[in-house]
Known about the structure:
Layout: H1 8-21, H2 26-33, H3 37-45, E1 51-52, E2 57-58
Antiparallel strand pairs: 1-2
Amino acid sequence: MGSLPGDSVLLLSVVNMKLRDYYSGLDALCEDLGESREDICARLASIGYNYDEGVNQFV
């Protein structure tokens, strides 16, 4: 991960904040930041969080 934190808990916080404040969806965030959707989802799933498109957050 280039511009996102290496720690999964910090990643959760940063990604959810960015989704809430700046992006209409996870694909837009990943495209803009040059990050892999699969990598983000896998890292956050490893701590029990999955992306919910309905609320545009990892819950």
